[in-house]
Amino acid sequence: MQAVNYLRMLKTGNMLRSAHSLFLIKNLRLSSVLSRNSSVGVKGEPAKPNIQTPVPGPKSQQLLEELSSLQQTGSVQLFADYDKCIGNYFVDADGNTFLDAFTQISSVPIGYNHPKLMEAFKDEHYLKQLVNRPALGVFPSLSWPEMLQKVLMPVAPCGLNCVATMMCGSCSNENAFKSVFMWYRNKERGGKIDFTPEEMESCMINQPPGAASLSILSFKGGFHGRTFGALSTTRSKPIHKLDCPAFDWPVAPFPRYKYPLDQHQRENCEEDQKCLEQVEEVIQKYQKKCIPVAGMIIEPIQAEGGDNEASPDFFKNLQKICKKNGIALIIDEVQTGCGPTGKMWCHEYFDLPSPPEIVTFSKKMLTGGFYFSEEFMPLQPYRIFNTWMGDPGKLILLKQVLTVIKNDNLISQTQETGKYLKEGLHQLENEYPNIINSVRGRGTFLAYNAPTTELRDKINITLKKNGVLSGVCGEKAIRIRPALIFEKKHAEIYLDTLRKIFKEF
């Protein structure tokens, strides 16, 4: 039906470019076949965006003024009417309906108000789990071990058979760092679990040997959170770090590729090698400074820092460096985890010869936490600990999310939709090379650059005014972060809106 309607548009002269016509006709025919077999369209979802007021509208501006009297609101874009949001569509306080390709900074897994999530707490047992929130490290419910085994462990990264739940991505990373430091010092002690009096006394005044002189290596452009310890590994934007004391921890360059990838294989291979060499150099530098690197944290795709990607070979060789130097490899899958790249975990693309030591998660997983191997289990209680240690209510929701992902084959759909969307972005890249370049990414976890920050911001703002929510990252990039229920028909709206904008620039 979509292909037929599109052909009618051609006859009425509404087509913008002939090349675009051929591209969409071919893919719409394929889409119509796939939709008969695999569509999981959301009941009640709007057919398209609908903007009724200026953006932001008068109600949003009034609410912003009210909130500004209470807190800093410079980051607030819109106020939502979550009663009306549905599927892939975000409705703001003024009644404007947006196609949401950003989804709360990539944290909405199966769209707004999904029926399975709305039904989750109709079960009185689950409702009581929500109401009686426990201090999980001390008084977990009798169903907690089973919840971990049946919800989190079936999707655990291969080779990691332990898990700790947390509240958010930042605290997941911080507790992963603590686990690494404890593991490293345990090795240095030869496995002894007793601490010396000197260690216990010195740690209380923040001095070694009790407060160990160790470090976590991170990468230029990386983002691992804004809480205090995580900030020492976040390297994306100065505003996140200014005025906060930081640890003397090493940073290494992350590859910066030239695009299209297939036309710059030699240059990008050289970039990999240059970065790997500098990783080894900085490890040796900090060894000589007597602040040895105990762990290394890296995103499979740097998100906040600009959607920078690196090759499987880069990650394989990085792991080799870690193994050679006795360093724990932490893969930060806070934004890439739970399917948006077309695999449950993005690092699956790298075909690593052995599992990373730790994988952190949050966002689309609804709960924070990290998977780890048994050797990173603390030897004493209260070392990886806080009051909540996660939230059973989030696991109840995640159980429904993972069931929907499996039953509706959403990982495969994300691959198909991502391929279609990426091809469309490449087409725009060919048509408007002065506006868009460097299309990249996996699944629907995609991005593209504008030539300047100013033009990038103009594109993003204009998308919003035309009813599409996207996000920015790095210096020049626009990132696309839809829910896993994002289909080809939604990709078409995104591409058509982008083409309309580019034509008007």
TrEMBL record:
Per the record's keyword annotation, is Transferase included, yes or no? yes
Query: What EC class is this?
Result: transferase
Q: Which residues form a coiled coil?
A: none
Molecular function, one GO term: pyridoxal phosphate binding
Output this protein's name. (S)-3-amino-2-methylpropionate transaminase
| Family statement drawn from the similarity comment of this UniProt entry | Belongs to the class-III pyridoxal-phosphate-dependent aminotransferase family.
Tell me which domain of life the UniProt entry assigns to the organism this sequence originates from.
Eukaryota
What's a GO biological-process term for it? Answer: gamma-aminobutyric acid catabolic process
The alphabetized UniProt keywords are: Aminotransferase, Pyridoxal phosphate, Transferase
Q: Which cofactor does it need?
A: pyridoxal 5'-phosphate
For this record, an example GO cellular component is:
mitochondrion
> What are the top taxonomic ranks of the organism?
Eukaryota, Metazoa, Ecdysozoa, Arthropoda, Hexapoda
- Native species of this protein? Parnassius apollo (Apollo butterfly)
Pfam families registered for this protein in UniProt: Aminotran_3 (PF00202)
Which PANTHER family does the entry link to? 4-AMINOBUTYRATE AMINOTRANSFERASE, MITOCHONDRIAL, AMINOTRANSFERASE
Enzyme Commission code(s) on record: 2.6.1.19, 2.6.1.22
